[in-house]
Amino acid sequence: MKKQEQEWKEKLSEEQYKILREAGTERPFTGEYNMHFEDGTYKCAGCNTPLFTSNTKFDSGCGWPSFDEAIKGSIEYKQDRTLGMLRTEIVCANCGGHLGHVFDDGPTETGKRYCVNSLSLNFNSKT
């Protein structure tokens, strides 16, 4: 999904643009979905691609929504060397929007912790 930057600026809020298009990060413990545990699907706020299901979400205590598994094919992984460390950035496979990072310190059997900015997500309830 290719959009011109002006189109993204018109579609997204200023805060969403900073995160999704400029790889920003929201402050911890401030996001709408950090402590959100309803049944449903979390989708990319940029293009509405389903990314995570509620049954993969857990409270990691890190201050951002955390998931132990993404919907197959929904995420692309990129090496991130910013902030003087090596991390794995996660972006939406459809629109390239920055979502957050994935770490190998999750408490479930996957061993993964997808640490995601709330502003990069929309939620669709199962009900």
From TrEMBL:
The keyword Aminoacyl-tRNA synthetase does not apply. Keywords: Oxidoreductase. Residues 5-126 form the MsrB domain. Pfam families: SelR (PF01641). Its EC number is 1.8.4.12. Signal peptide: none annotated. It is an enzyme of class 1 (oxidoreductase). It catalyses: L-methionyl-[protein] + [thioredoxin]-disulfide + H2O = L-methionyl-(R)-S-oxide-[protein] + [thioredoxin]-dithiol. It comes from the Bacteria. SUPFAM superfamilies: Mss4-like (SSF51316). PANTHER family: METHIONINE SULFOXIDE REDUCTASE, METHIONINE-R-SULFOXIDE REDUCTASE B1. This is peptide-methionine (R)-S-oxide reductase. The gene is mrsB2.
